[in-house]
Each structure stands twice: as C-alpha cells, then as structure tokens.
Amino acid sequence: MGRTMGLDYGDKTIGVAVSDAFGWTAQGIEVIRRRKPEDDLDRLRELVREYEVSEFVVGLPKNMNNTIGPRGELCMAFARSLEEAMQLPVKLWDERLSTVSAQRTLIEADVSRKKRKQVIDKMAAAIILQNYLDSQSKR
Questions:
Q1: Reported pTM
Q2: What parts of the sequence cross the membrane (predicted)?
Q3: Average of pLDDT values for 24-32?
Q4: Rounded to whole angstroms, how far apart are CA atoms 66 and 31?
C-alpha cells in the first residue's frame, strides 16, 4: 500500500502534501506554480513516483451552506483529469476551513506575511490530508 497525496488546488498554485507510510500523518512537501495542465500533471507524476503514492485526496471548497460553487466545480474537473491521467483513485474532501486553519496556525507561530504566502498552500494541503487520514482511522 502506498502513500496518500493531498492536494490544495488553487487558481495559481497547487499545494501538495503526502502521508507517512502508515497513513497516520500528513506533511506539506511542495507548492506547484500552475502553468499548463500537462506541466502540472507531469510534476505530480514525478512526485507520485518519488513518494510511491497510491491515492489522492483533493480539497473540495464548498460554500458554508454545503453547496458547490464555481471554485468547487473547477476542483471536481481537476480531480477527474487527475484520476484519468494517473489511473489512481481520487477522493474529494471538504476543505472549507483548511486555509483559514493554516492561516491561523502560521499567524500564531508568528510567521511573517511574506513567508506565510510561500507556505500557506502546502500547509492547507497538509490539513486537508490530515483531516482525511484522521477520518479513515476512526473506522
């Protein structure tokens, strides 16, 4: 069984996190600057090989009333193309509060605004993945 990769799919970046080999903890590893979809998928393919990934969790931004807006539709389309390209299972995970949570953690840690901008996406990816991993261990 491989690792799980968590992705925070944004307009300009994709935050990337991976689980440990046991599927217990998530660690942010990279922020991919989005270019062309093929380039993004090529980079993800390299990371899948490097970290021996067997499944993905993509953050799905929902509105607070649980509906899916344009942002969520984009993430769902990305998840479908990811599944097709990688031939690996892709799960969508409600990420409503992950970026807020990442932001708060960084502010509490007194990380400068400039530095926060550089790590927020991979931290959000790690939070999405960690929440997913925690939900799996409760079964």
A1: 0.86
A2: none
A3: 94
A4: 27
